[in-house]
Amino acid sequence: MSDIAKLQIGESTYEFPLIKGTENETAIDIKTLRDTTGAVTIDPGFKNTGSCQSAITFLDGEKGILRYRGYAIEELAEKADFLEVAYLLIFGELPTEEQLNKFYSDILDQAIVDDDVKKILDAFPKNAHPMGVLSSLTSALTAFNPSSVNVDSEEDMYKAIVKIMGKFPVLVAWTLRKKQGLPLNYGSRKLGYVENILTMMFQKPNDEYELNPIMINALDKLLILHADHEQNCSTSTVRIVGSSHAGLFASLSAGISALWGPLHGGANQAVLEMLEAIKADGGDTKKYMAKAKDKNDPFRLMGFGHRVYKNFDPRARIIKKAADEVLADLGVSDPILDIAKGLEREALEDQYFVDRKLYPNVDFYSGIIYRAMGIPVEMFTVMFALGRLPGWIAQWREMRLRKEPIGRPRQVYTGYNYRPFVGKINK
Ligand code: CMC
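That is the input. Now the predicted structure with carboxymethyl coenzyme *A docked in place:
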């Protein structure tokens, strides 16, 4: 194949170089398009537009492949732990034991939040959605840590990274504790990263919290599966906000808001609510399948379909198996799991879903595990954010280290042409 793309506009032909990725993906480099042709491209939802070159995550939606820094998601979920994966994503290589210990010790040094943050949390109503609270608190961290990161200094960058890796789980736990009216607490240096998350979330003020290895493993796996997913909506948000040289915490806070939507991370909450509604309605999955296919009905089968996967989401396969195991291990029997499996079976055989290549995505089964772990439904997307944190950090860091220009798309204007001002109010 030639390494040139040709574009004809009217009588003129223009040539643009092709760029090849390490997995042979091809992109047309149109950096000079507007300068040479006067035209721009239009691509709503960026379905065909690569916003950057990235060495972090590889995803092949047709084959159902997901790899972080070259490692298959299946192997990472099986053999690595979340903090190791976080280090891998952010710094590019798996850590040695020494590097990991130092990373965690530095994170623990930062795992304290300014006490005045409690006042902000206090001002939120108890029924506020935890994602709104988490986004606000993350943004508030900028006020308590006002010095901007010097991205040319690895040390400065590292400090900002361990700071947010330390403080974020505290904020996550506090959003839950606020909702439940529990006193705000902290983790312990004696516990691992995931153990601390569970302890901070679930410890009662009058009791010891007994860590359950099943819960630790399940959460570890879920966080790994959510840790990065290349240029999705929230990650693109983090990169684009960061491209204006806004700080890391401000960029992350914007990413959390983007994740909240039900078409993105908010789908895990929406899936569980949908399954509950089907159960309350007598468990008639066929009725909901029909609604999902009806173009006059806004209902969509939540947890199905993906912008990039046109095959099984590999994360969904792992989570489905984990849901079976976790429920059995915890001795929980959840009728919702049967409804989910029934829906999946029907959808995979239904022509509408087959034609559109709609398969279960990562959110379809994750809520069932979260619920079995005792995590309230409104916290599901917060758990997604906790997992995605290292991915957002890695993408933000890569964007700044590569000195990417400010993200600023073009548009095609479709409004009025010039019209002279004639006031509508008599003066
Ligand atoms: N139920 C019914 N129909 C669907 C669904 C669904 N879940 N998803 C897509 N379709 C149909 C859609 O109506 C369209 O049909 P037609 O071609 O006849 O107009 C076709 O499939 C293509 O859909 P699209 O909306 O153009 O595809 P997209 O790439 O813009 O959207 C999506 C991808 C994930 C937003 C969408 O599949 C969806 O809304 N799914 C439900 C929400 C969900 O589970 N989101 C989690 C995504 S994975 C985790 C994450 O990103 O955080």
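The first strand starts at residue 4 and ends at 9.
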